[in-house]
Structures are given as C-alpha cells and as structure tokens.
Write a structure and sequence with these properties.
Blueprint: E1 27-31, E2 38-42, E3 55-59, E4 61-63, E5 67-72, E6 78-86, E7 91-97, E8 107-110, E9 115-122, E10 128-134, H1 138-145, E11 171-174, H2 186-194, E12 198-204, E13 227-231, H3 233-245, E14 249-252, H4 254-262, E15 264-265, E16 268-269, E17 272-276, E18 291-295, H5 302-311, H6 313-325, E19 336-339
Parallel strand pairs: 1-19, 3-12, 3-14, 4-11, 14-18
Antiparallel strand pairs: 1-2, 5-6, 5-8, 6-7, 7-10, 8-9, 9-10, 12-13, 13-17, 15-16, 18-19
Helix pairs in contact: 5-6
Length: 340
C-alpha cells in the first residue's frame, strides 16, 4: 500500500482557520462503513445517530501552552521551543527552532529569566532533551509564558485559548488537541447521556507525531512516535460491558480509538497505562472500536489511513471527494464525520 494512495486535492480555502462560535454547529457527514452511504446534517444531530446502551469514548487530555519563545543566553538569538513529552520532573523532550542554536550545553532564557532551559542532548529526529530551571510551579509559569501550539496549517491567531480544548479536558500533557471532541458542548453531552449512552473517559497525550508527514513511499515502513495513554478500570469496564451487551463502542477521535485499540487484548480492553506507537492502516482488524466520530484529515496522513482502515479506503476517498465538492471545512477547526 502506497502513501500516494491517500492523496486528495484540497483547496486551501477549505482549511478552517477559526473555530465556530457554537461548537456543535459544524456540519456532519455520516458515512456507512459497510455500505458507503452518505448523509449530510449538522453536529447538533449526532445524538440522533447514537443508541441507548452505546458507549461513547472520550479523550480527556488537556493541551498545555507548549510553545515557548526565548533567547539564547550567550547571543540573544531568538529560539522557539515546543514541549513534546515530559521525561522526568523538569526534563522534557522538545522540538527546537532553529536547531543549530540548541547544541548540548546551550542555555535558553524565557520571560526575563523566570524560566531557563539547558539542552542536555540531541535525540531521535533531531529533538532535544532539555532541563528546565525555575522557582515556583512549572504549570503556572508555562501558563504565563507559553502559547497554544496550533497546527502549522492554522495561521490565524487564536483569540480564546479554551476553544482549543474540549469541554471535558482534564489531564494536562498534550501538544495538540483531540480535535473531534471540540464539537461537543456540555449541553450536548448531557442530552447524549439522557438518551442512555454511556460515557467512558480515557487519556492519550497527543504528540506532534500527529502532524508529521509520512515520508516513506510504502505505508508499512512508516514508524509512529510513541504517546502516553491511560485507561482506568471504570472506562475499561464500561467499554467491555457495551461490547458484551451487543452495543456499539463509538470513539470520539482517532486518539480515543488508538488508546482503546492499544489497551485491547483478544477484544477485551485492559485497564492500565503505557506508551503506544500503534499504527492503524487498511488491513488492521479492530478489536474494540465499532464507530468513530472524527474530523477531516490531511492528505497522505496516518489519520486518514486510520479512518480508511475502519470505513474502507474507497468509501473514505469518495466521502472526502464529496466533502470537498460540498465545501466542508477541513482539519482541526473544521467539520466532522461519523463513521457508523
């Protein structure tokens, strides 16, 4: 299977630059994974497609303001640092631009010295391990100095930080939002629960690997970056009970899907935590996921490969072609799809 098989033409004006005022007013394309049939509605109506006893799986990670702008201590040169993953208390794996200014031993200063970072070593793909020094609480300092790490295709400034968080975001640690969840309001979730749908919360801290292009010609040769996930006993029990009843497990977003697939052994979701580099592409046999609520993904991306594994590549590429023709809004702040 070739990476090029997942290419489609996308006019630049269809890339959503700003979130809608009402989260749930985005459009919704409903795609039958077996039939390829398509319906068009809006996200408020997602509740009509959910059944009593279904289990809706939500990723409750919270995006941290992971983008820091500082200066090299010795030269004053501008350095941009993006937090990717906490390794130890004050040691993080980071992406540093420009990399040539961040050799081991280099010191970077943020906010007039409130926060400093020393480069420890260069790791995989040129990322840097850095050690932070500060007084006080790191999260509070980060909240003061950091910016939301919006994807590179969003060029507009985000006016409200909370619009790049889901309404159920809880555990800090992501470098990007689990964007399928951005469509839900608290009221809509209450309506869904009232219908008898069970909500299960899992955690996967989204890394920048989400946005890394696939650079290999053969899909099978692509290597995913690891991301931390956690499934508690309550969530595992709810998912397994839904499967046992014959109800559907519906993941909100590719991150929720990757989480429960990583935690599954012989079709049973296990409680636990760890790092996952699971790569789902056509041919993959899903163990726990029946349906998926998701956004529209970049051409040739691992996320487009994942949704194609669930709905079938031909079905998916036809749906994308129709979404482009109907001028759906694409990517993080864009419209949604329900694969059922």
């Amino acid at each position: 299977m070739k990476t090029l098989d997942f290419y489609y033409e996308l006019p630049e004006e269809l890339i959503a630059q700003d979130p809608l005022h009402d989260r749930a007013s985005s459009r919704l394309l409903v795609l039958g994974k077996e039939t390829g049939e398509r319906e068009h509605t809006d996200f408020h109506h997602i509740v009509d497609y959910l059944h009593k006893g279904d289990c809706l799986v939500l990723n409750d990670t919270r995006v941290i303001p992971a983008r820091l702008i500082g200066q090299k201590e010795d030269t004053g040169g501008k350095v941009e640092l993006l937090l990717l993953k906490r390794k130890q208390d004050n040691v993080w794996e980071t992406l540093v631009k420009p990399g040539k200014k961040a050799r081991p031993g280099a010191k970077i200063v943020f906010g007039d010295g409130i926060l400093t970072a020393r480069v420890l070593q260069i790791v995989e793909e040129g990322n840097r391990l850095v050690q932070f020094s500060y007084e006080g609480i790191f999260e509070e300092i980060l909240d003061r100095l950091g910016q939301m790490p919006l994807p590179p295709y969003i060029t507009h400034e985000l006016k409200e930080k909370e619009r790049y968080q889901t309404v159920y975001a809880k555990y800090e640690g992501s470098a990007a939002a689990p964007t399928a969840g951005l469509h839900f309001t608290k009221e809509l979730l209450q309506e869904i629960e009232k219908k008898g749908v069970v909500l299960a919360h899992v955690t996967l801290h989204v890394g920048l690997g989400t946005f890394r292009p696939v650079k290999v010609e053969d899909v099978a040769n692509h290597h995913m970056h690891t991301e931390y996930y956690r499934v508690n006993k309550d969530a595992a029990d709810k998912i397994n009970a839904a499967k046992a009843r014959g109800n559907r497990v519906i993941c909100v977003g590719t991150t929720s899907c990757r989480t429960i697939e990583s935690a599954s052994v012989n079709g049973i979701v296990q409680a636990g935590e760890g790092d996952t580099d699971i790569f789902i592409y056509p041919g993959y046999q899903f163990q726990a996921t029946d349906c998926l609520i998701t956004n529209f993904h970049l051409p040739e991306s691992t996320l487009l490969m994942l949704v194609s594994a669930l709905a079938g590549k031909e079905n998916m590429m036809e749906a994308y072609k129709e979404a482009v023709a109907m001028k759906y809004r694409f990517f993080s702040f864009g419209d949604a799809m329900f694969i059922n």
